[in-house]
Amino acid sequence: MITCFGLFGRQILDYLHVSIPALQVSGGILLLLIALDLLTGRIAEPTQTKEVNVALVPPGTPLLAGPGAIVAVILAVQKADGAAQYAAVWAAIAAIHVVLWLTMRFSLVIIRIIKDGGVVLITRLSGLLLSAIAVQLVANGVFAFVDQAT
């Protein structure tokens, strides 16, 4: 999903008549909702309904390739100037994929090492950092709207 938005994100947004600031604000709000769930500990286990095949929409997709990541990739690709910067953006995307794969591959080992208390601590810290990122996304979107209006 991230690769698709990296390659075609600007064209998709142009076709839908959605601006980057609008995506930033909406992504920030959605990210803030996720962050609040992490901070309060109200995370429910994903459930599968009869109508939805979990193979088509994995439960982690909105968190791994959500609005914040999509905006970041579109902006990074848009602001890249020259082959070296494009290569750096795509190398960063590939590196993140490797880190995510390693983390998921060895998640049971990691959980055994950090135990339940460590999971709660990391969840709360992640929620705090994610809420700060969400607020910054909303603020950047609002400032961009103001800049467009003037």
TrEMBL record:
Q: Enumerate the InterPro entries for this protein.
A: Multi_antbiot-R_MarC
> What keyword terms does UniProt attach to this protein?
Cell membrane, Membrane, Transmembrane, Transmembrane helix
Q: Which family does it belong to?
A: Belongs to the UPF0056 (MarC) family.
Annotated membrane topology? Multi-pass membrane protein
Highest taxon of the source?
Answer: Bacteria
What is the recorded name of this protein?
Answer: UPF0056 membrane protein
- Where does it reside? Cell membrane
Spell out where the chain crosses the membrane. Answer: 20-40, 52-77, 83-104, 125-146
**Which Pfam families does UniProt cross-reference here?**
MarC
* Keyword Metal-binding included in the entry's annotation: no
